[in-house]
Amino acid sequence: xxxxxxLRIELPTPYAVGTVNCYLFTSPDxxxxxxxxxxxxxxxxxxAALARQGLASADLQRIIITHPHEDHCGLAGWLxxxxxxxxxxxxxxxxxxxxxxxxxxxxxAYYRDIFLPGTAMPVAMQTAVLTYFEQLKAxxxxxxxxxxxxxxxxxxxxxxxxxxxxxHMPGHAHHQTCFYQPDSRQLxxxxxxxxxxxxxxxxxxxxxxxxxxxxxxxxxSLDVLEGLAIDSVYPGHGPIFHDPAEKIAQQRKRIxxxxxxxxxxxxxxxxxxxxxxxxxxxxxxxxxRFAGLWMIVGYLDLLQTEGRVQETEIDGVWHYVLTNNxxxx
Length: 329
Ligand SMILES: [Zn+2]
What we know:
Blueprint: E1 7-12, E2 19-25, E3 31-33, H1 40-52, E4 62-64, H2 70-73, H3 76-81, E5 86-90, H4 94-98, H5 100-119, H6 123-135, E6 148-151, E7 156-159, E8 162-168, E9 177-181, E10 186-190, H7 214-226, E11 232-235, H8 244-267, H9 273-280, H10 290-305, E12 309-314, E13 317-322
Parallel strand pairs: 3-4, 4-5, 5-6, 10-11
Antiparallel strand pairs: 1-2, 2-3, 7-8, 8-9, 9-10, 12-13
């Protein structure tokens, strides 16, 4: 068995997440998994990392995207423009590569009209969040449609001389795929399995459907990963690691603990998302509480799935109360 391992390339982003990883397989042909954001700094760092392997961007044969977030696919357009590479993505996520600004505009509209008003967040903070989303546009460059290739979940991808299974791993992003290689027990884990649990990003639901509950889906994705034999994890952020079972156990424990905190806060009468976030993330500066709010939505989604919490909408604002099915601890 050829044991071909990817090279981790760490690239800067302008976001709170810090750096993002892409992974390079140099043989049999140069293949890059994810690309980093579109920025001068990120491009320079990637070009330098390729050069250290004796490669130029023009040598890349394929670029494979784990999920269409700007820190993972932002530079794909530039790379396609400077190589003959094809750009591969799961068929359900391809629309984001083709129409990133339009899809982002839909998400912004959902946040502006429904989600942010529903949180009861102060208007100035709503504006700040919308501005943040708007500026993500600059971190993505369009990929020419004729260079894009799609894969389905039933396909197998061949790179690094190995056959990789494609896993749909919703939770952080609906359109997220991880790549698993059973013989060498390697997992390219995107933003699914990280050193700490990823944020369950609130996404605008498809027309006519309810919003997808991110954290419950993440827990299901964890269940799937727990059933696999994995020795090496190549995460979307942070160093490569080799103890996925411990990481998963820690994350489950922390989520359970924070879910209990959420139940307590509800028992004390905090009812709206902004009240719960201010209470449970009081130690964080208000401007930095937004990722916390996504987590709270996640805990409430879990508690609703378990039948312990009920959501009601009052004048466009969501209120959460304990059901009397269960004791609070
Ligand atoms: Zn992501």
